[in-house]
Amino acid sequence: MQQTRLRFPPSPTGYLHIGGARTALYNWLFVKKTGGKLILRIEDTDADRSTEESIAGIVEGLEWLGIDWDEGPYFQTDFSGDHRRAAEKLLEERKAYHCFCSKEELEKKREAALAAKQNFGYDGTCRHLTDGEVEEKQQAGHPSVIRFKVPEREGRIGYDDEVLGRIESSYEEIDDFVIVRSNGSPLYLLCNVVDDIRDRISHVIRGQDHMTNTVKQLLLYEALEASIPVFAHIPLTLDTKKAKISKRSHGEIVAVQFYKEHGFLPWAFNNFLVLLGWSPGDDREIFSREELIEAFSLDRINKSASIFNYRKGDPKFFTDPKAIAINEHYLRTIPVEELAPLVKDVLIDYNLWQDDYDHDRHQWFLDTIDLIRSRFHVLTDFATLGKAYFSDQYEIEAKPLNKNLLKHPGLKQWLPELADEYENLTDFSLEQTERLARACAERAEVKPGVIINGMRTVVTGQLAGPSMFDILVTIGQDKVVSRLRNTPQLFPEGS
RNA sequence: GUCCCCAUCGUCUAGUCAGGUCCAGGACACCGGCCUUUCACGCCGGCAACACCGGUUCAAAUCCGGUUGGGGACGCCA
After folding, report:
1. CB proximity A276–strand B (7 Å threshold)
2. Which has the closest alpha carbon to A347: A315, A318, A389, A310?
3. CATH no. for A85-180
4. A248 touches strand B (CB under 7 A)
5. Which is catalytic among the residues A33, A244, A247, A479?
6. CA–C1' A280–B26 (A)
7. Which of A82-86, A243-247, A353-357 has the lowest mean pLDDT?
8. Hey, where are the domains in chain A?
9. A57-104 tens-digit pLDDT
């Protein structure tokens, strides 16, 4: 088999959303699997809607995911000469024709047909214009588009889809479609095919919303005397109401950027995306990059649409619970050395980073991450829930404050006393800190939990966390002593 | 209105092509238990699905037909 060549051709009319990212991922995986090349082609022929900002966002999203490409980015508009020549050729060979129907006329016809519950497709008004008539209209200055002339044939045309199987359509059901606008700029159906031919694309992996385009494009390949690539139409991703997900109706939650900003690990997110419509056939769900490339294949892509299980306003899950679960899995299982740079980026963003975490305190940094990560869901939790480990400016949350501190006024006295004892420790260890804490509880005649959870509140501001004595040793003698001494100030004035 | 595609737990899915090993397996979520100074992690257990109707067959989640439901396309968008 010749080298496989695939492309990811986003239109730069918005950010990269999860459906597009998944398409890119499937293309990328197939390329890696087959040792081929991936081409990034920006399909910017819609001048009105394409933006620089969108291009930058898409590239940034792909880079974050780690989906790299071998050629490009190419810009479709840079090849408009190719597209025009192809249209010209089709015109000359009488495989296409000028159509003078105005947009308004067509729109009117379409609406009328819709209202009358009639079929609405192009009626072929200009299909049989003679050369003379065309000449005449052009002389008169009437604008025209170029339409592809669907061959008048009996029977059906079709192809074998790698995911869906045999897909066919009758010739008579295909309308003559526009390939060049009246302003001379070529349209998607044509550009896409011309570019795929030029880029020697061997496999087209795209969403099922392109299925009906494919039949039209088959005709274009034939007319342009090119061989057709292998097609694989992957299922769409819908929302919980089974509507197509879109930036328009779902906003940030479907943008790849959102997951970057909310502390997802890039590979974890890929791992989530790949499972939306593909499975390896065994019980595995977590894959390393290499494992996934090895396991991936087109014939295990599902036919039916999957649902992105996001419920707006869900108090517990801010996005699909499975996405979070996979992220958590990686967060607590990857080697801490791999996690550290990602945590570093977050701490930098939140202004919590200190350079010695990379030098003198590097081991401390790794140990701390390892200590606290099992309770976290996303990377940003290190900077929010974990703030007390990296800064003295942490919040004391209301719940632990009330439940574990204010409820036991004696703590106002006990904890500063304990602070004194901790200050005098020459061996600030797990054993010694625990021994003194338990002794303190005994003197106060309360359960050890009262002292321990009181300390937890004062030292971390949190209701829950790792073993208290691990925390003490990690945060360090000086800070613990000063935080514990601060206890009285957490009580309301005069209490 | 026309054409096309799809249909297994709440969600992601295995099983469908080569019918029996499936009164349907895994994961997430949910519920219970163990562990424990808290909360997690971890471990153990539980709940939960073959859309419907007919046909073929000794045997159907699996094959065939229909129904229903869902999705997509029908643009001088991509």
Report:
1. yes
2. A389
3. 3.90.800.10
4. no
5. A247
6. 12
7. A243-247
8. 5-73+191-235, 85-180, 249-387, 398-490
9. 999 999 999 999 999 899 999 999 999 999 999 999 999 999 999 988
